Amino acid sequence: VQLQASGGGLVQAGDSLRLSCAASGRTFSSFAMGWFRQAPGKEREFVAAISWSGRSTIYADSVKGRFTVSRGNAKNTLYLQMNSLKPEDTAVYYCAAGRSSYTTQYSHDYSYWGQGTQVTVSS
Fold this sequence. Notes:
This protein is mainly β. It is built from no helices and 11 strands. About 0% of the residues lie in helices and about 50% in strands. Strands 2, 4, 5, 6, 9, 10 and 11 form a 7-stranded mixed β-sheet that branches. The radius of gyration is 13 Å and the shape is globular. The relative contact order is 0.32. The model has no long low-confidence stretch (mean pLDDT about 95).
């Protein structure tokens, strides 16, 4: 089982990026998926999550209104559209697959993790 995150890069404040996460080895279409991030010297934090159907989403307050999480038609691909990026969004972003079909912000509710993709936002 593998989750492969991609799409990170170096951008300026106010720019946009779209992260992708492709799952392989099993299907996650019945499970919630989410994005977390970890900045240097800080603990990993929740960013966004989406239910198995894609109809339910939750966001951290710090990204609400700027980031949008979505799933591909086959439900095995996860996306994070990030707009109006800020320097404080700089972090390694990780995608994760949940243990159930319901959205959750808690990392212990996720059983599979991708390797992370670096997002750097300059001021």
